[in-house]
Write a structure and sequence with these properties.
single chain, 82% helix, mainly alpha, 4 helices, 110 residues
């Protein structure tokens, strides 16, 4: 019968499981809510800056957004390091948001 004495590495195993859980949570948050915000931002950015009339630009940006969302969901669970995914989302999302905000403040058309 096995004893229930405490092993020195028992706490390390719990820490590894806890870290793995946070990686899963990070992937889920990146795949759904963060991806939704990022895709909406990219859609508005594309609709704003595509060299088309407003109607066709909105349609083209919306169609492209479905592909972008699907790709980012796939990448969220394919990539090895969750930090790289979050870095990509933030590093590309923040400048895109700033440029969109600046453009809307200057001209006001969306």
């Amino acid at each position: 019968m096995a004893t229930t004495e405490s092993r020195p590495d028992a706490d390390a195993g719990g820490a590894v499981r806890s870290l793995a859980r946070w990686h899963i949570v990070g992937r889920i948050l990146a795949a759904i809510p963060a991806n939704y915000v990022y895709t909406a931002l990219a859609t508005a950015f594309a609709a704003r800056f595509l060299p088309l009339d407003p109607g066709p630009a909105s349609v083209a940006a919306t169609l492209a957004s479905f592909l972008l969302f699907a790709i980012l969901v796939t990448v969220a669970f394919f990539i090895r390091r969750v930090g790289r995914l979050w870095l990509f989302l933030v590093a590309t999302g923040v400048p895109m948001a700033l440029l969109l905000w600046r453009s809307l403040a200057a001209e006001g058309r969306l």
